[in-house]
Amino acid sequence: MSSAIECVKKIIPPYQDHLPTASVFAPSNIALIKYWGKRDETINLPVTDSISLGNYGSQATLSRAEQGDAVFLNTQPVDKHSEFFRRAQTFLSLFRPSPDFYFKLEATSNIPIAAGLASSASGFASITLALNVFFNWQLDLKALSILARLGSGSAARSVCPGFMHWHKGMALDGSDAYATRLDVTWPELRLGLLIFSDKPKEKSSRLAMKESVYTSPFYQVWPECVEKDLEQILPAIAARDFALLGSTAEQNALAMHACMQTSRPATVYTLPETMKMMHLVWKARRDGLPVYFTQDAGPNLKLLFEAKHLTDVKAHFPELVEVRPF
Ligand code: DP6
After folding, report:
1. In whole numbers, what is the pLDDT of the chain averaged over residues?
2. Rounded Cα gap, residues 88 and 304, in angstroms
3. What's the CA gap between 117 and 158, in Å, rounded?
4. What's the rounded Cα separation, in Å, for the pair 306 and 59?
5. Is the pLDDT of residue 116 over 80?
6. How far apart are CA 251 and CA 227, in angstroms?
7. pLDDT range class, residue 114, cuts 50, 70, 90
8. Do strands 50-65 and 38-40 pair parallel, antiparallel, or not at all (unpaired)?
9. What is the pTM of this model?
10. Ligand 1 shell residues, CB under 6 Å
11. Which atom from ligand 1 is nearest to the alpha carbon of 50?
12. Ramachandran bin of 121, using left for φ above 0, alpha for ψ from -120 to 50, beta for the remaining angles
């Protein structure tokens, strides 16, 4: 087993100098085939591959601070005792040239307020990309994906936009657990956000994921489900087969929720409103509208549809926020 700092040392060049400031954007991502469960919790090595689609995201601006780390989110200083500050600081500490080197991190996000997309993925990926410029490391996407993964697993998929495939890898040091971009653009593809709740979740996905791995009887079949879903979704993406993409993503999300709902203690992010919307999606499909959903570690749904059906999808879901991934 490797520590995060050992992984970093293998990748970044020796410290020489830094720029006055560096500012880089990274997309957030929505998983179509979910990452749910780790084979190594220290360096976020996944049990399975996963596939995602990038969308809105975050900008990280880094500079050197004189007296201790300082973190700002959307121009507001972040409380030093908050979980957000602690996770950002722990991650930045992996990259300090010396113990008295402090960072000022200014993070901004263009994720619509309360969109339920405020994942850590774009945050850690944007910090990683900004560090790469700040210290002039000139790392490739593979190395950047590995570094971003140390902050949050799903951040491995946020180092560039579009479809990303995070490979589970086999190496104990995580050197083969990184994401690659699928060379497919799909301009007609749309995501639709259905936001019913903007309350912070009661249980982190990190904890819920761990409980699923150790206690859900269904977790044993999860890797097999993912293998089968990958066999379907990769050709679906290559052929731009929307029905196969949507049905596979929806089934995969339901299987992930089955794992968490059958863990001890159970994790149920689904609310009555979530269920109501799922039934509306299924009814719309029975009525001939090709629309599918996916759900992450929260109650909100993300719809998948094609641009030509936007008007009809909006008629069924007037509150939908449209996202164009390409
Ligand atoms: C449900 O990447 O947030 O969104 O690696 O512990 O930071 P950590 O977990 P995180 O988990 C994301 C879980 C998910 C599915 C996915 O994005 O694939």
Report:
1. 95
2. 32
3. 13
4. 28
5. no
6. 13
7. very low
8. unpaired
9. 0.96
10. 31, 34-35, 44, 50, 120, 152-154, 205-206, 296-297
11. 18
12. alpha
pLDDT at residue 211 greater than cutoff 50: yes
> How far apart are the CA of 138 and the centre of ligand 1, in A?
27
Q: Which residues pair with 305 in a beta bridge?
A: 190
- Percentage of residues of the chain with pLDDT beyond 70: 97
Q: Quote the pLDDT of residue 118.
A: 57
Closest atom of ligand 1 to 154 CA is 2
pLDDT (0 to 100) of residue 117: 60
Q: pLDDT tens digits for 133-188?
A: 999 999 999 999 999 999 999 999 999 999 999 999 999 999 999 999 999 999 99
> Which atom from ligand 1 is nearest to the alpha carbon of 153?
5
CA–CA distance, 254 with 144 (Å, rounded to integer): 31
Atom of ligand 1 nearest to the CA of 155: 2
DSSP-derived letter for residue 308 is: G
Mutate-to-test residue for ligand 1 from 209, 259, 260, 295, highest number of ligand atoms within 8 A of CB: 209
53 and 163 in contact (C-beta within 8 Å)?
yes
> Best mutation site among 28, 29, 33, 35 for ligand 1, i.e. most ligand atoms within 8 A of its Cβ?
35
| Residue 35 token pair | 């990452």
Q: Which atom of ligand 1 lies at the shortest distance from residue 120's CA?
A: 3
Q: What is the pLDDT of residues 71-99, one digit of tens each?
A: 999 999 999 999 889 999 999 999 999 99
- Pocket test residue of 154, 201, 259 for ligand 1, highest count of atoms within 8 A of CB: 154
From the CA atom positions of the chain, what is the Rg in Å? 20
Cα 85 to middle of ligand 1, angstroms: 19
Candidates 272, 304, 307, 309; CA nearest to 287 is 309
pLDDT at residue 290 is higher than 80: yes
